[in-house]
Amino acid sequence: MLLYNHNFRMLLVSSIFSSFSISMYLLIEQWYVVHELGVPKLVGAVLLATTLPRVIFMFVGGMLADRLRKSRIIFFSLLTRSILMLLAALLAEGNFLHLLPLLFFAVTFGISDAFFWPARDSIITQLIPEEHLTKANAYMQTINQLGVVLGPPVAAMLLSYFSYSMVFAIIFALLLFSSLCQMTIKEPRKAIITESITLQIQEALQYIKTSPILRLLMLTFVIDNLLYIGPLMLSIPLFAESILAGDAFTLSFLQISFSGGIIIGGILLGFLTIKKQGRWITAVLLGEGILLGLYSQSKSFILSSILLCLLGICVSAINVPVISLIQGVVPKHLIGRVLSVSTLVSIGLVPLSYGLVSLLLIANISIVSILIVSSLSIVIFSSILIIQKNSFRKI
User: Fold this and answer.
1) How far, in Å, CA of 65 to CA of 337, rounded?
2) Burial 214-238, CB ≥16 within 10 A → b, else e
3) What average pLDDT does this structure show over 12-37?
């Protein structure tokens, strides 16, 4: 059993506290800008200061994960964020937490997060046998999503009872505990890499370029994040207001349905053994496109909630096997860099997708039309993968 593995168990604990703390911090950050600083128009700038450095430094984090001990990178990332939260608590207590310090915390928080993810995803290959990677990633996906779902309501509840400084102090304690858990992980020692960073980058990109499987996996990430995640996420508030004529409860329930589907998908994959992962990914991608088309035509609150839950399950059913495949086929000395590229592709394309969908909406193209085009594109792409004799058939 994976949960009997001490190293993996401590990694799970660190991950859930990290995910939980980040989602709490992001909500408090936005709330502080709106209600304490009184500059709601700058919420987007503060969020950009948090997310953009994460994207920019993701590949650097992957290179360090291949050069240094991953458990130490995770430890220092968590410790850095905990120190930031302690400083934020002290500044908030003294009424010194103005916009500039908040932007500094946002940027540093994002950079630290960029080092955490490649190290966390690549260390799994050193702690878990290859045949258990899919289940290990399913557990990780589930607990991460739990943190994302539970963090904001818990943060909102804490803010209703405590001051900002106290909530920052609570996040500090959670991150500190998470970093201490990392100290108990016994990571196998690795050979020291002496080649230059430039050569490291070239080696990783060349490996991706010459691997048909990785090229297909990266293309799948591009299609999924550009044509699926962006249109779907932006459609939820629009559906809640204009098509379903609902209120805040309608919106929150639809979002919970989607997030709950991701959690359910992660749990289900923890019990399933997928032998033909390539065929599984293409089949789920096809189902995802069909479900997206059905969702675009839904005018029922109950049906929309069910379809969003199924679409959330599809997210886990694709992401977990893709990450497991990358971990399984990539040499261990390249795993951090390659995983950082895949994460960079997935994270970097989501804001681009948001921007493209927003421009289409401004051009008076309805969200229903956008969803239909996205659905058809995904169905066509997955059908080509199924019909063609590609590398996916061998894995």
Assistant:
1) 7
2) bebbbebbebbbbbbbbbbebbbeb
3) 82
